[in-house]
């Protein structure tokens, strides 16, 4: 479980009520301006390794025809913790090894790169209330300010381990250059202070580059030996930016599941309209079946409020829903 202490206590209580015969562990991580990314990524990976070393059975007897039942792990997280949980779920799911088979996420922050693009998809409609747009713009500004404090270099938030959405698609833009007069780490700061003369001459402003397409990636590659876990994602519509990220993350996860499930060559990529037109009826039915299975593997639950895992009656109901899903996934 990745989240705040209050969130963790609420989730722990609900999970215990489900009668799960499994240990429940909270993964703590450091994250502050003095401990920026990738520190939380390293902490979470270190905690995950500790769980595998100390809590999983050293040996297990494989059930006939069901070796995947051994050492099944589930992870859940919200907001920043949801992004870290998504990172762990997408990378620690190796076939034939102990790993994550289920991930429950609430309003996960899975893309630190393009807040404006995520916002535009959800609040630029004519019917969106003015107050709703203002709140969404305020959240975008707040997250941009937070990003400048939690990432020393722009390339750090372009890293898929910090922005798990980028495992599944391109970022849609180039990595911006770091400000030349701002040191990016302690060593560079010391070097700057020791210089006898330090003067930065600004260059002429260049025309802003056009945004690039957010093309899907073929993740995971068959060479990685990964099997994507199941996902249960909850998002609240009143937080338009996070809802937009959750909606896109769900869609791209389903595409990845369809690719991975395919045994034919066309199942390894996103099909364009011409390729779909050229398929025969049997291939169309097979694709439709894979898409149906992908929707079961990656579920999106939506509420009209913020949709948080909190102590409110609605929040507790959402935690209970998530806990039951985790229970079913691990049985």
UniProtKB/TrEMBL annotation:
GO molecular function: hydrolase activity
Keyword NAD among record annotations: no
Keyword Transmembrane helix: no
Coiled-coil segments on the chain, per record: none
A family per Pfam: Abhydrolase_3
Keywords attached to this entry: Hydrolase
UniProt domain Alpha/beta hydrolase fold-3: residue ranges: 19-191
Protein name: Alpha/beta hydrolase fold-3 domain-containing protein
Species for this entry: Friedmanniomyces endolithicus
Lineage per the UniProt record: Eukaryota, Fungi, Dikarya, Ascomycota, Pezizomycotina
């Amino acid at each position: 479980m990745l989240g705040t202490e209050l969130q963790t206590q609420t989730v722990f209580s609900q999970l215990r009520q489900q009668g799960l015969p499994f240990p429940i562990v909270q993964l703590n991580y450091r994250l502050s301006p003095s401990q920026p990314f990738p520190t939380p990524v390293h902490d979470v990976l270190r905690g995950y390794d500790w769980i595998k070393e100390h809590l999983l059975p050293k040996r297990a007897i494989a059930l006939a025809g069901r070796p995947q039942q051994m050492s099944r792990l589930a992870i859940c997280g919200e907001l920043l913790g949801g992004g870290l949980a998504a990172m762990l779920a997408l990378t620690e799911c190796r076939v034939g090894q102990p790993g994550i088979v289920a991930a429950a996420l609430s309003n996960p922050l899975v893309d630190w790169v393009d807040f404006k693009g995520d916002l535009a998809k959800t609040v630029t409609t004519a019917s969106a209330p003015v107050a709703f747009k203002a709140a969404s713009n305020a959240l975008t500004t707040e997250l941009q300010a937070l990003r400048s404090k939690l990432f020393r270099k722009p390339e750090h938030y372009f890293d898929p381990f910090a922005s798990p959405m980028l495992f599944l698609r391109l970022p849609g833009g180039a990595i911006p250059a770091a400000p030349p007069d701002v040191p990016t780490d302690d060593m560079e700061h010391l070097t700057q202070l020791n210089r006898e003369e330090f003067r930065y001459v600004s260059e002429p402003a260049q025309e802003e580059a056009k945004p690039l397409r957010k093309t899907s990636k073929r993740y995971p590659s068959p060479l990685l030996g990964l099997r994507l876990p199941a996902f249960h994602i909850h998002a609240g519509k009143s937080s338009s930016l996070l809802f937009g990220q959750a909606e896109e993350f769900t869609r791209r996860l389903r595409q990845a599941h369809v690719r991975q499930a395919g045994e034919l060559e066309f199942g390894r990529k996103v099909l364009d309209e011409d390729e779909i037109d050229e398929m025969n009826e049997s291939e169309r039915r097979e694709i439709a079946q894979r898409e149906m299975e992908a929707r079961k593997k990656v579920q999106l639950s939506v509420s009209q409020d913020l949709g948080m895992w909190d102590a409110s009656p609605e929040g507790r109901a959402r935690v209970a829903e998530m806990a039951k899903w985790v229970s079913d996934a691990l049985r």
